[in-house]
Write a structure and sequence with these properties.
By secondary structure, the chain is mostly helical. 73% of the residues lie in helices and 1% in strands. Strands 1-2 form a two-stranded antiparallel sheet. A hairpin with a 5-residue loop joins β1 and β2.
């Protein structure tokens, strides 16, 4: 299937706009040579609305549009807990962590670990993050993006992967974070507008031409898909191999509110380079915090854009509303209905014009995340590996050059690995689970590093080093333990070990690099307080209604 001329014009116009914008903002004033602050932190000049838009554009990618829609198809609204709990997490990060990061003037998360602990902790976590960004994040986004191109336009997977990587590379490698962040402002407009268009058409199909009626019919047709807190055995979902498994394994009941979900969310939104880098590039702490509030409101909206279409696709398949749609949902090799094909299949149903807009939205989500991940990969490698071990006296221009080369290599490696993800049914859950192998360790060393002055460097090193081995042992030894609960158990073990080691080693004394905390540090503006109150109220209402 090919895009109509109008759709193609819309899509090409979008591509030219993004590339042109990226190259335009990357230009430096005459006589000014781009330095590391320009390249890695956008000259520390982003306003709140650019921070918030870039946070969401970097976060929302193929893993949400395709992966989360696929999970919406399989297990329903419950997957929205990642979005709604993320809005709450943004408030916590804005109040308790951002003030410390910005006060210290750091470039990277490993840089914070060097300041609080030592070189060993910094290097260990830098290597973990580099591996995670390249082999899980970049790889999965490339795969899911190529899957959408394959489903919509019959573009071979290999060409889709190469094309998306090249698109993101064109402007991001040259311009750095400034190009990524400012193009994200445009990307998020396409992302929301195109996403809402797809939701509207999907609901129209279910409602026989009436989108509002379609929304009401979803709850009538599949009430189980509107349960936020799942019980064990409540819902069996496809495993991608022709069988089923308990959805409780992915979202284990109340744990999504008070358990391991907080670990994965805080690790992602508070200690993740390609997220926090946007806030570090803000004009001021107040602008960064307002940007977090803006991003929080957008996160509340995202399930309407990425989850509801998946539920609508489930109703279309369940009720046999469209034979061609049902056939498109099947994997061409196995013949099995594949959850992650829900969103790309829906895009085929859009009318001329809107199809180009929605396709541009999906591409915007993909390339903005790819650009962000590659830029953060290059930032960590340059500032925490290269500058420390290979280029202690490297000039500013050399650091920028190394950053560009690193981003290019990251894209190439991810493109080679991406096709291996083809056997997955829900790639979103793959990303969450394998990111969760290091999340407990990340959370432990940052949490204790900030809030417990007695935490020692050796304790942090144990926390960082044991996160993956403990996660693997529990996964193999207790396969029935949901991965979100597994993260909670690993964190409790690491926390206990870190406390014991710190008390024995430090003999009750504060660590020399401990952080001085005062009430003044955590003061926020009135505008932030009002926004935080509104977001908290909306989250509470959503869980009460859909419990």
């Amino acid at each position: 299937m090919l895009l109509e001329p109008l759709d193609l014009a819309v899509f090409i116009g979008y591509c030219l706009l993004i590339i042109g914008m990226g190259l335009f903002v990357s230009q430096e004033k005459k006589g000014h040579v781009k330095n590391s602050s320009d390249y890695f932190l956008a000259s520390k000049a982003l306003p709140w609305w650019a921070v918030g838009a870039s946070l969401i554009a970097s976060n929302i990618s193929a893993e949400q549009f395709i992966g989360m829609s696929g999970s919406g198809f399989a297990l329903g609204l419950a997957i929205s807990t990642y979005e709604w709990m993320a809005a709450a997490t943004l408030l916590v990060v804005a109040i308790f962590f951002l003030p410390i990061y910005i006060k210290k003037g750091i470039y990277t998360m490993p840089g914070f670990l060097l300041d609080r602990y030592d070189t060993r902790v910094r290097t260990t976590m830098a290597i973990f993050w580099l591996l995670l960004y390249v082999f899980v994040n970049l790889t999965s986004v490339l795969y899911l993006g190529a899957l959408s191109l394959n489903t919509i336009l019959n573009v071979p997977m290999v060409y889709g992967i190469i094309g998306l990587a090249l698109f993101a590379m064109i402007y991001s490698i040259y311009g750095g974070l400034k190009a990524v962040a400012w193009t994200d402002v445009i990307q998020v407009v396409f992302l929301i507008a195109g996403g809402l268009a797809t939701t509207y058409i999907a609901l129209q199909m279910v409602g026989g031409g009436d989108a509002w009626e379609g929304l009401g019919l979803l709850r009538q047709e599949v009430p189980g898909h509107f349960s936020m807190i799942l019980s064990k055995g409540e819902m069996m979902i496809p495993d991608g191999k022709g069988g089923t498994y308990d959805a409780y394994q992915d979202l284990p009941g109340i744990s999504v509110l008070v358990g391991g979900m907080w670990i994965t969310n805080l690790s992602y939104w508070g200690f993740n380079q390609y997220i926090t880098q946007r806030a570090l590039a803000a004009k001021s702490l107040d602008e960064a915090q307002k940007g977090m509030i803006f991003a929080g409101f957008l996160k509340l909206l995202m399930p309407l854009i990425v989850v509801i279409p998946g539920i609508a696709a489930w109703v279309i398949v369940k009720n046999g509303i469209d034979v061609q749609f049902i056939e498109s949902m099947k994997d061409p090799i196995t013949g099995l209905t594949k959850s992650d094909r829900a969103y790309p299949t829906l895009l085929q149903l859009l009318p001329v014009g809107l199809k180009g807009l929605a396709f541009a939205a999906l591409t915007a989500a993909i390339v903005s995340s790819l650009a962000s991940m590659a830029n953060s990969t290059s930032t960590i490698f340059t500032m925490d590996i290269y500058k420390k071990y290979f280029g202690q006296n490297a000039s500013e221009s050399t650091q920028v050059k190394v950053g560009r080369i690193t981003a290019g290599v990251a894209f190439i490696v991810a493109a080679i690995v991406a096709p291996a993800l083809g056997q997955l049914d829900q790639a979103f859950q793959f990303i969450q689970e394998y990111t969760g192998f290091i999340s407990p360790g990340v959370f432990a060393i940052f949490f204790f590093g900030v809030f417990w002055k007695k935490t020692t460097s050796n304790a942090a090193l144990v926390g960082a080093g044991l996160s993956i081995p403990l996660s693997v042992v529990l996964k193999l030894g207790f396969p029935a333990l949901p991965f979100i609960d597994r993260m909670g158990v690993v964190f409790l073990i690491l926390a206990t070990l870190m406390i014991v080691i710190s008390l024995i080693e430090g003999k009750g004394k504060d660590h020399p690099n401990s952080i001085a905390i005062s009430r003044e540090l955590f003061k926020t503006s009135s505008a932030f307080k009002v926004g935080a109150f509104i977001i908290s109220g909306i989250i509470a209402a959503l869980y009460i209604v859909f419990w």
